[in-house]
């Protein structure tokens, strides 16, 4: 074997190994809602990083009305549904573009408002949620909520309604006790040291694997 052939073989093996580690597009049905903290501590530039993370992670899913549907809520002192589950289930590119256009709010961190809104609206059939389809909320936050007790209570009601809650913590200014009462369990909590951590492909792939892991259905 020539040196050139050996080099090509090594390259081919490396590419094959790399591709095998990447998550395949999830072909199943899932109702997925991102709930982004848009409070004053986040800032516009970091909020853009959060939006890009949410937009990019949808690349791991086959989007469609019988496949994965994606919604987006943004919260601070108030909550806004930027994307309903049924809104962009026929155009994945339109979905990702709309995520990036979500507006930054500023102000306070009323997480319980966002969780209540998700239960009553975002995961409602009126917004496009489907009966019998797994439902997951991905909450992304960098700090403590203004009313911890209300947040924990709202999270409990949302989980009891059948929604799995994944929490992505950004930085070290959160209340871990509060985070634990929001998430569906310890394995549903992901942490990055700062907003730049959301840019890393490896972290995004870890979250994507969790979203379509077989264990999700057993929770």
From TrEMBL:
Biological source species: Mytilus edulis (Blue mussel)
Signal sequence annotation: 1-20
Keyword Glycoprotein belongs to the record: no
Taxonomic superkingdom: Eukaryota
Keywords attached to this entry: Signal
SUPFAM superfamilies the record matches: vWA-like (SSF53300)
Annotated SMART domains: VWA
Domain VWFA positions: 31-207
Record carries keyword Signal: yes
One Pfam short name: VWA
Protein name: COL12A
InterPro entries linked to this entry: ECM_Assembly_Org (IPR050525), VWF_A (IPR002035), vWFA_dom_sf (IPR036465)
């Amino acid at each position: 074997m020539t040196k050139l052939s050996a080099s090509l073989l090594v390259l081919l093996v490396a590419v094959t190994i790399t591709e095998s580690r990447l998550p395949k597009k999830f072909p199943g049905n899932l109702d997925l809602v991102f709930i982004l903290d848009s409070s004053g501590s986040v800032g516009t530039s970091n909020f853009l990083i959060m939006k890009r993370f949410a937009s990019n992670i949808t690349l791991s899913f086959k989007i469609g009305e019988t496949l994965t549907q994606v919604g987006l809520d943004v919260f601070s002192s108030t909550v806004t549904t930027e994307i309903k589950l049924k809104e962009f289930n026929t155009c994945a590119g339109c979905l990702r573009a709309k995520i990036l256009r979500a507006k930054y709010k500023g102000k306070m961190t009323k997480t319980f408002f966002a969780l209540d809104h998700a239960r009553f609206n975002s995961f409602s059939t009126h917004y496009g949620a489907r009966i019998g389809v797994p439902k997951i909320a991905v909450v992304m936050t960098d700090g403590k909520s203004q009313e911890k007790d209300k947040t924990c209570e709202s999270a409990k009601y949302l989980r009891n309604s059948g929604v799995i809650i994944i929490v992505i913590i950004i930085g070290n200014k959160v209340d871990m006790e509060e985070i634990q009462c929001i998430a569906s369990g310890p394995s549903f909590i992901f942490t990055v040291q700062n907003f730049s951590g959301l840019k890393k492909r490896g972290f995004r792939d870890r979250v994507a694997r969790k979203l379509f892991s077989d264990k999700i259905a057993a929770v």
